[in-house]
Design goal:
The chain has 143 residues and is α/β, with parallel strands linked by helices. The chain has a single domain, classed as Rossmann fold (3-Layer(aba) Sandwich), CATH 3.40.50.720. It is built from 5 helices and 8 strands; from the N terminus they run ββαβββαββαβαα. The strands form 4 sheets. It has a two-stranded parallel ribbon with strand order 1-6. 22% of the residues are buried.
């Protein structure tokens, strides 16, 4: 089985990057009082415990091949950042920009939202809305 997902975050962020996306945005907002984020790249933020549960369900049903699993709904990185700050009560200026590719940089797709028709046709349980998952994640004590 090959699982494709989008915008992963959870308890164990990437230490080399300074944590996961919510951790980095909160740190930036608190330290600098502002964050700049793109409005034209779309994704479905996905909470890793939800992805793990969905993966276990797929494996338990003997699913093979490529499968798209994400929390439901979609947003821009800018909207994701605003939701993180709103949920935590952190006040900061959030500047909206559009994507530019620096010389020598990698072009990123503007739409990273993954449809899940195969998962649905296999009867796999849809993952909850991304905003609900984010609320649960942010309500947990920092580790």
């Amino acid at each position: 089985i090959v699982i494709r997902s989008s915008g992963l975050y959870g308890a164990e962020g990437n230490a080399a990057k300074g944590g996961n996306f919510p951790q980095r945005m909160l740190a930036r907002a608190k330290e600098q009082g502002k964050v700049t984020m793109v409005t034209d790249q779309r994704l479905t933020p996905t909470y890793t415990p939800d992805l793990a549960a969905a993966t276990l369900e797929a494996v338990g049903k003997g699913v093979d091949g490529v499968l798209h699993l994400t929390n439901s709904g979609e947003c821009s990185w800018h909207e994701f950042t605003l939701a993180i700050l709103e949920e935590t009560g952190v006040e900061a200026e959030v500047n909206a920009v559009t994507t530019t590719v620096p010389e020598g940089g990698a072009a990123r797709p503007l739409n990273g939202v993954l449809a899940r028709p195969r998962a649905d046709s296999l009867g796999l349980t849809p993952l909850r809305p991304w905003r609900e998952a984010l609320s649960e994640y942010l309500a947990q004590p920092a580790s």
